[in-house]
Amino acid sequence: MARRTRRSPRADTASPEPPTPRGRRRRAVAAHGRDLPEGAVATTTGTARLERDPDHDGAVTLYVNGVPSSHVDLDDPGFLAFEYMQQMAAVIEHAPPGPLRVLHLGAAGCTLARWVEHTRPGSTQVGVDLDARLLELVREWFDLPRSPRLRLRADDAGHALTTFPDGAFDVVVRDVFAGDATPEHLVTTATAREVRRVLRPGGVYLANCADRPPLTTARRELATLAAVAATDGTTGPPPGSRPGDPAGDRPSDRPSDRPRDRDAVGLAAIAEPGQLKGRRYGNLVLVAVRPGPTSIDLASAGLSRAARTLPLPARVLVGAELEAFVGAARPFDDPPENAAPPPSTDGHG
What is the pTM of this model? Predict the structure, then answer.
């Protein structure tokens, strides 16, 4: 379950607000002149329900099939309540300035897409979710950018990846769940290769990995990403892989953090320290950068500082620390060619 940060106090270690107790009914939420439903609404894969934010009447938490999937502040698209989204945003902020092309696998309430639209005007984004009805509802309920700024597509995330051309995106975000885990077909080497293919050189992959002690899934996912990076001939040995020779340079909006292709680390894990030590079930953000002239340096002091100064401070594991974290974990192999992927029932975002 994604943990959220309240507006006041700034740091909050509690889980998202629980569902309304039985026998009590909350009034319908009114925001931006819209009457939002107070009960569960049927969707393609199950149900969606909105819970009013007790700290702010203009914000809601979207529950998909009983799981808190998105926190949407209709008054402030720049506010991100879920901690893993704050960590993803810290990475995106270190991308070169200007509009971005972003693919969201697991759209749900499109919270991060609204944040990108707010912080990077002119960006073009695609949100993919298996639940077609949910996509219709979030268009109706929330103040989402219209196409072509944000196109919403009902599809399986793995299939959708195969339909995009090479180098189509600057950022790919994976936030797809079936229950409390990412569907198996989205954590394999085949999917990692597809993500790398659709990223431009210098693009970044951000994966929300929910795991519990001893964090076996996170370690294996990192090993998978490292193995794929090593086989494309552009990085060194996994998991602390390093990009190859630079193909040029372009100024960054943070001169002190300007990417140095030969030295930039291409793989990282971000989470609060207790999570990295495997103390509980929670979220880790896994980051993989495709080398290029404007690669984000995941080992930069700027990114480390940005993670430390979040409402709930986080650490960025790279290099030798990341290698020790991954240890002898094995990559997730591709399933047999005739195996059908299981459905991904819950999209976050």
Answer: 0.82
